[in-house]
Amino acid sequence: MAFGDLKTEKGVKALNDYLADRSYIEGYEPSQADVTTFKALGKAPASSHPHALRWYNHINSFGSETSKFPSASSAAPVADSKPVPADDDDDDVDLFGSDDEEDEAAEKIKQERIKAYSEKKSKKPALIPKSSIVLDVKPWDDETNMEEMEKSVRTITCEGLIWGQSKFVPLAYGIKKLQIGCVIEDDKVSVDWLTEEIQNFEDLVQSIDIAAFNKI
């Protein structure tokens, strides 16, 4: 917030640019920093510097009350009264300070949120892909022992296979089919494997159809 010599046009311009989006020299209320800068300025800026003029008139309106302004949090943003050398460019004027500390704080908050989300997500149980299947197991003829057929089918067991309800459904000429449901874990049980295992009961099973297949 070094404005240079406020008795020069360059110093007043630096002050005007600084006050373009600020009401006071420091913070959000008048302080002794405003008083110091006001005294260093000495007179109202020209209308060509509207932001500095607005600020000057505002501080001037307080009159003797300026002595009650709180202390500045840092040294007044006014350089010594020596004129700034003509060859001194604006690269040395830091009007806004560094955002490094704010950036570091924002990044820290971001990383903490990412960590919390990752931990929460890791605690969720993994979803196991499963399928619900209804099989139609057909016998050779009406003399096939259907109860034995069902019992044989249910002897097929493995990890990821759960047998469900079953029933005998009439087909024709007194022949019935076994309609049986099951749930399988897709990563552990293959439908082709299951149907082949059932087909191995060749004395009882003539054919197998998949009546229904649903992912769950």
Automatic annotation (TrEMBL):
Cellular component terms per the entry's GO annotation: cytosol; eukaryotic translation elongation factor 1 complex
Q: Where is the composition biased (Low complexity)?
A: 70-84
Q: Where is this region: Disordered?
A: 70-104
SUPFAM superfamilies attached here?
eEF-1beta-like (SSF54984), GST C-terminal domain-like (SSF47616)
Look up keyword Membrane and say if it applies: no
Pfam assignment, any one: EF-1_beta_acid
Q: Which PROSITE patterns match?
A: EF1BD_1, EF1BD_2
CDD domains found in the cross-reference section: EF1B, GST_C_eEF1b_like
Looking at the record, the residues that make up the Elongation factor 1 beta central acidic region eukaryote domain are 95-121
Domain (Translation elongation factor EF1B beta/delta subunit guanine nucleotide exchange): give its ranges.
Answer: 130-216
Entry's Gene Ontology molecular function annotations: guanyl-nucleotide exchange factor activity; translation elongation factor activity
Renumbered to this chain, the Acidic residues biased-composition regions fall at 86-104
Keywords, A to Z, come to: Elongation factor, Protein biosynthesis
What InterPro entries has UniProt attached to this entry?
Answer: eEF-1beta-like_sf (IPR036219), EF-1_beta_acid_region_euk (IPR018940), EF1B_bsu/dsu (IPR049720), EF1B_bsu/dsu_GNE (IPR014038), Glutathione-S-Trfase_C_sf (IPR036282), Transl_elong_EF1B/ribsomal_bS6 (IPR014717), Transl_elong_EF1B_B/D_CS (IPR001326)
Subunit structure of this chain's protein = EF-1 is composed of 4 subunits: alpha, beta (alpha subunit of the eEF1B subcomplex), delta (beta subunit of the eEF1B subcomplex), and gamma (gamma subunit of the eEF1B subcomplex). Interacts with elongation factor EEF1A1. EF-1 is composed of 4 subunits: alpha, beta, delta, and gamma.
What family is it from? Belongs to the EF-1-beta/EF-1-delta family.
Q: What does this protein do?
A: Catalytic subunit of the guanine nucleotide exchange factor (GEF) (eEF1B subcomplex) of the eukaryotic elongation factor 1 complex (eEF1). Stimulates the exchange of GDP for GTP on elongation factor 1A (eEF1A), probably by displacing GDP from the nucleotide binding pocket in eEF1A.
Q: What is this protein called?
A: Elongation factor 1-beta
